[in-house]
Structure formats: C-alpha cells, structure tokens
Design goal:
Elements: H1 3-6, H2 12-19, E1 23-27, E2 32-43, E3 72-77, E4 80-87, E5 94-105, H3 107-113, H4 126-133, E6 150-152, E7 165-168, H5 178-181, E8 186-189
Antiparallel strand pairs: 1-2, 1-6, 2-5, 2-8, 3-4, 4-5, 7-8
C-alpha cells in the first residue's frame, strides 16, 4: 500500500492506532536511525479546538496539514521541533503527531545526538525523538514521505503488535476547552517504557509487545 492510500483510507483516529508498532526510519545520509512507533496523537482538523487548523486557520506555518495525506508537517515551539503527518485528502487539515518511538536502529548515534541521554529518555517524547534524529529545523516540512529521508514501513510483517493499546487525553492541551482536552485522542502501547510519562511501575514484559509464537 502506498502512503497516499494509507493516510486517506480511514479515519485519523484509526490510522493513529494502526501506526503503533510500525517502524519509523530516518536516513541522515550516513546511517539509518529510528525505531518502532509507540505513541501517537490524532488532530481532527477544523472542528478540533486543539488542532493548528481549528476553524480553518491556514497559514504558511501550518500549510502541511492542508496537503494530501502522507505529507510531512514539522512545526516548532521555542527551540523544539515536532514531526506530524497529514491525513485525509488535500484540503481536509487533519494530522497525526508522532510522540515517541522505541529505538531500534542507529541507537549509538541517537544517544550522541541527545548528548548522552539513553534508555527511555532517548526518545520518550516528540521533541526528544527529533533531537535523537539530529533534526533541528523544518527543512523536510511539506515534503511527501516517499520524497523525504523518512520511511514508515507499512509491511504488516515488519510491525510489532501491542498486547494492549491505551487511548487517553492528549498531552498539553489547553484546558480552556475541557471537552477537547479530555477527548481520548492519544494512543500508546501499554507498558512501553518509551511512551511519554510512562511510570516505571507500569512497565510491561517485552515492553508491551506481543511475544512471537
């Protein structure tokens, strides 16, 4: 399945769930960095008070959300950068924030990029993930996935499957809109240590993945 089909074939919520366990890879030109997606957040476009495109707001900064599904949308907050992927057809500005990955490839380089931080602190948050990739700009904003150094492996045979997926409220959403702040649009692999704010007491065997038979 190609990216255009994958990122438009279903609801943004269902795609957010299906992305869990899929490899996200970044080719920095010298080596492959990446891991398995363990946490995502869905943003539902014009009706979503937490979305950058709420009420149809469209600027140069959020243009990526208005492109066809599979387009990269990178945004910045202060010195931090965040990796999103547009979903749905062009003009319907929904998207998914990739919040965390479980490292699997290029771990040594990612630790270097994170100034020595390792273990869950390496990639247990969206800005940390981008730092681990060595990305400190928006150069790949507006690029389609297949025309970028990023790859999301859509082969189900390469996917890790979670024993349990949790849906919870998104992180850092303004409480001035309680209804949207409380919507369970954040999805994560239960018990995976690389999920944002996962407590040590909640870690699960095999990092929450199903064991292969």
């Amino acid at each position: 399945m190609d990216y255009s089909t994958y990122f438009t074939k279903s609801t943004t919520e269902k795609i957010s769930i299906d992305l869990l366990g899929r490899p996200l890879i970044f080719d920095n030109g010298q080596q492959i960095l990446g891991g398995y997606i363990v946490e995502t957040e869905a943003y539902l476009g014009k009706r979503d008070r937490a979305a950058h495109s709420y009420q149809g707001r469209r600027t140069a900064a959020n243009e990526g959300l208005y492109r066809r599904g599979g387009t990269i949308y990178i945004y910045a907050q202060r010195q931090y950068f965040f990796f999103d992927i547009a979903t749905q057809k062009a003009g319907e500005p929904q998207g998914i924030l990739i919040r965390a990955i479980e490292p699997a490839w290029g771990i040594k380089q990612m630790i270097t990029n994170r100034s020595g931080k390792s273990g869950p602190l390496l990639t247990n948050g969206p800005a940390k993930m981008m730092q681990a990739f060595g990305i400190h700009n928006k150069d790949w904003n507006l690029h389609f996935l297949s025309k970028s150094p990023f790859t999301i492996d859509l082969n189900d045979n390469h996917k890790n499957y979670a024993r349990k997926i949790i849906a919870s409220p998104r992180i850092g959403i303004n409480q001035s809109s309680p209804a949207w702040a409380s919507k369970p649009l954040r999805y994560y692999v239960s018990g995976n240590p690389y999920v944002s704010r996962m407590k040590i007491k909640d870690y699960q065997p095999n990092n929450g993945w199903k064991l292969l038979s």
